[in-house]
């Protein structure tokens, strides 16, 4: 928890209430007493993916009920908000250990979409001497590797991960800009004038009640083979250690078993899930 958790949550709540067309909080009451709450928002598709110009609805981290009957009612309200605002898909978050919430979501037709996997940063990870910082000359390789990863994501769930027609150009532009950002490191495993893999070690975000200072994120991570993938995982941990991070979080589509197995072999475990409503 962040030491200023309550104040940060209040700021976020006031911000969200000021944009009712994009975000909403619902409160469950019983006998005049608050017994539960849920937050829900509308988020644009990432620039490299295509949702037909519609947003994605996300039932957020704040989904809490002190009495069991409140949870279905809160989820009813959140899903109604998403439908009324024309979202292309509905996604809900769920801590991996929250078996009650997970069972409720699955009973209502939600299926695992994304695994948020974590491990403690290994400050003694082996560093492959082949790994080096990325340069502009690597951008075409990064685009190629990301295109391959996008295809795996599309195979895992085409409703959520359909590449945008302009995805290559948009991704190249973002990577070019990322090379100028001081809060992240772009790493590549070079091969024959290009790269056989890349990783972006960057800061992670958490809900406002939590302290994200020690958390690093691996989202943009792709390689031609799993040995290179493992080398990049190790190199990224060394980068996170330099940044003062103590925990690394990696993103994995739920239906990409080879990637999940590679992360598990490196010591990652699932801490949180996103689930998509199959309609």
> What is the end-to-end distance?
35 Å
How would you sum up the major sheet?
11 strands, mixed
- Count of helical regions: 7
Approximate strand percentage = 25-35%
Quick rundown:
By secondary structure, the chain is α+β, with helices and mostly antiparallel strands. It has helices spanning 5-17, 70-84, 99-107, 139-156, 167-178, 226-243, 257-265; strands spanning 23-30, 33-43, 56-65, 89-95, 110-120, 132-133, 185-191, 194-203, 215-223, 247-253, 269-277. The longest helix has 18 residues, at 139-156.
Protein architecture, described:
By secondary structure, this protein is α+β, with helices and mostly antiparallel strands. It contains seven helices and eleven strands. Helix 2 (70-84) links the parallel strand 3 (56-65) and strand 4. Helix 4 packs across helix 5 (167-178). The two termini are 35 Å apart.
């Amino acid at each position: 928890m962040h030491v200023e958790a309550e104040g940060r949550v209040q700021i976020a709540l006031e911000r969200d209430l000021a944009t009712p067309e994009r975000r909403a909080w619902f409160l469950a009451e019983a006998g005049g007493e608050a017994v539960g709450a849920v937050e829900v928002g509308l988020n644009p598709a990432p620039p490299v993916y295509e949702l037909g110009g519609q947003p994605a609805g996300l039932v957020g981290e704040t989904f809490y009920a002190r009495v069991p009957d409140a949870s279905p009612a809160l989820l009813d309200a959140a899903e109604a908000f998403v439908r009324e605002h024309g979202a292309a898909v509905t996604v809900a978050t769920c801590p991996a250990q929250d078996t009650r919430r997970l069972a409720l979501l699955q009973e209502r037709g939600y299926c695992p979409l994304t695994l948020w996997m974590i491990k403690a940063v290994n400050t003694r990870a082996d560093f492959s001497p082949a790994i080096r910082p990325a340069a502009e000359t690597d951008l075409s390789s990064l685009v190629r590797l990301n295109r391959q990863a996008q295809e795996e994501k599309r195979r895992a769930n085409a409703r959520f991960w359909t590449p945008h027609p302009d995805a290559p150009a948009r991704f190249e532009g973002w990577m070019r800009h990322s090379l100028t950002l001081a809060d992240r490191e772009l790493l590549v495993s070079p091969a024959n004038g290009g790269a056989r893999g890349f990783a972006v070690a960057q800061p992670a975000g958490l809900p406002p009640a939590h302290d994200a200072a020690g958390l690093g994120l691996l989202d943009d991570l792709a390689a031609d083979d799993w040995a290179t993938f493992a080398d990049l995982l190790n190199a990224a941990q060394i980068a996170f250690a330099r940044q003062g991070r103590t925990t690394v979080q990696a993103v994995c589509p739920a239906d990409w078993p080879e990637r999940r197995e590679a992360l598990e072999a490196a010591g990652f475990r699932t801490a949180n899930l996103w689930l998509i409503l199959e309609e």
